Structure to design on (248 residues):
């Protein structure tokens, strides 16, 4: 009787064990599938973070400074053709910067955790608003010589400066946020971006003084030659007529 009882027990165990094994394999398969999805999402999220950072660097770290330098250089240009070219460079750079920053902001709102609990996100929201405000002010530019031109220029200049400074600051905070989220080093990119900022700053300050330096050299070089030719050869009232026009 005991033999029959044990035989029945082993038969039931033999029948149930495949079900138990298949259940374990099913659970393991579900776990592996979830882990695969998690890895895939992590790779996707990492790519989106890098793309977001690249778009904002291209916008705030490159195109905005290029537009700022172009309009700064135009203050010393007398040729209308060169002045028009620099103005178009400024306008196109700022339009592309606006489009790229908008694409980066849309990516951030759609794909990232926007709890606004860190400095990068809070600065980013304020910066995005200032970018669009600056664009609208640029569109409604008054004609040169009109009554509100001076006030418009002051506001446009102040907003442009604020956007440039906040843009550079937010790139640094974005690198810090990237390091905190991915645990990856940012030392190399920080050094590269700092070198770029230093070069742009130096060029911004130097090009404003280049004309002055050039004039200093010209005036010192021509000081010993000048006066006798005009006084002896040409009458005083004819000097303006033969004065060479500035070439383009």
């Amino acid at each position: 009787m005991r033999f029959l009882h044990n035989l029945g027990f082993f038969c039931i165990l033999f029948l149930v064990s495949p079900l138990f094994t298949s259940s374990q394999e099913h659970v393991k398969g579900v776990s592996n599938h979830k882990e695969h999805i998690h890895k895939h999402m992590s790779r996707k999220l990492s790519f989106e973070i890098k793309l977001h950072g690249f778009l904002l660097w291209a916008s705030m770290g490159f195109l905005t400074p290029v537009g700022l330098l172009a309009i700064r250089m135009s203050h010393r240009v007398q040729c209308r053709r060169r002045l028009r070219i620099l103005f178009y460079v400024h306008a196109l750079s700022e339009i592309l910067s606006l489009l790229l920053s908008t694409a980066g902001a849309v990516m951030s709102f759609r794909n990232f955790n926007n709890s606004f609990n860190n400095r990068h996100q809070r600065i980013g929201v304020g910066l995005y608003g200032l970018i669009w405000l600056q664009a609208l002010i640029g569109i409604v530019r008054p004609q040169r010589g009109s009554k509100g031109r001076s006030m418009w220029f002051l506001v446009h200049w102040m907003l442009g400066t604020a956007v440039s400074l906040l843009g550079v600051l937010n790139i640094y905070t974005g690198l810090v946020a990237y390091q905190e989220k991915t645990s990856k080093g940012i030392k190399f990119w920080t050094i590269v971006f700092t070198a770029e900022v230093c070069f742009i700053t130096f060029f911004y300050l130097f090009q404003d003084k280049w004309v002055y330096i050039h004039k200093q050299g010209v005036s010192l070089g021509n000081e010993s030659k000048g006066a006798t030719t005009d006084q002896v050869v040409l009458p005083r009232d004819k000097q303006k007529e033969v004065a060479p026009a500035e070439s383009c």
User: Anything to note?
Assistant: The radius of gyration is 34 Å. Residues 45-210 form a domain with the Four Helix Bundle (Hemerythrin (Met), subunit A) fold (CATH 1.20.120.1770).
